[in-house]
Amino acid sequence: MPKTPDYFHGKTILITGAGSGIGRSSALVFAREGANVVCSDIDADAAERVANQVIQMGAKATFNCCDVTDRPQVDAMVAQAIEDFGRVDFELNAAGGALARKPFLEITDELWERTYALNVKGTFNAAQAVIPHMLENGGGVIVNIASIASKVGGPGNSVHYASSKGAVDTMTMGIGREFASRGIRCLSISPGVVDTPFHDSTPQEVLDMYSQATPMGRMALPEEIAETVLFACSDAAPYMTADTIKVSGGLR
User: Fold this and answer.
1) Annotated catalytic, 161?
2) The pTM is what?
């Protein structure tokens, strides 16, 4: 929560991957705090549904369709957000995924490249597109969704995903340090296993393994990650940048 009452009221957050999971939950949490929410997703219908939920909560929202791996689409997404609300104060890069679960020796070049395009290039595109605007406005906060998988390596089913999220952590650290003196904070959040559509195709035995390895014995709720995003963007965290926040239920 912010230190200042109504801190988020009237400020704008741009969320990629807003149509489901952590992105959707974050849109609703920021709407609760009175923020304007730009809901972006490759699934335009899902983005529109979330934007309508935000509006029903009494906040302002717009939506757009964007493939974050396509830089012209990302540039258009940021430009539209600025046109809609005048400025972007916060950006949450939640678009991402493992695309497929594969043992290391079964990871193809195509799967590796598609995973990096979505998780790494997508985050790079969105951050690089919004930073010039934030510099003009004297600052902002960028939050990237990483994963605790980058700390454990994803053995047996998702080395490609874990590696890409490690790259997100490294990029976050570089952005945060480069722009710290210019008013931009950049953080990543490394969730454990989160109960979202991300895991709809994950074999049950894998989910059971993760739950057993988590001291809390359960998956996180997307709302729990969204509340951490809110804190990271707030005036209660002004000295936090260039680092990742683990929200893992104790999973290491």
Assistant:
1) yes
2) 0.95
The residue segments making up the domain with residue 165 are 12-246
Name the catalytic one among 7, 116, 161, 239.
Answer: 161
- Give the pair of three-digit tokens for residue 25: 């939950």
Please give the full DSSP string across the chain, using - where no structure is assigned: --SSTTTTTT-EEEEETTTSHHHHHHHHHHHHTT-EEEEEESSHHHHHHHHHHHHHTT--EEEEE--TT-HHHHHHHHHHHHHHHS---EEEE-----SS---GGG--HHHHHHHHIIIIIHHHHHHHHHHHHHHHTT-EEEEEE--THHHH--TTT-HHHHHHHHHHHHHHHHHHHHHGGGTEEEEEEEE-SB-SGGGTTS-HHHHHHHHHHSTT-SPBPHHHHHHHHHHHHSTT-TT--SEEEEESTT--
Residue 4 forms part of a structural domain: no
Task: Give a yes or no: residue 5 inside a domain.
Answer: no
The CATH number for 150's domain is 3.40.50.720
Q: Is 25 exposed, middle or buried (0-12, 13-18, 19+ CB in 10 A)?
A: buried
pLDDT range class, residue 199, cuts 50, 70, 90: low
pLDDT in tens, 3-21: 999 999 999 999 999 999 9
Q: What is the mean pLDDT of residues 83-101?
A: 96
Is residue 98 assigned to a domain? yes
Structure confidence at residue 127 (pLDDT)? 98
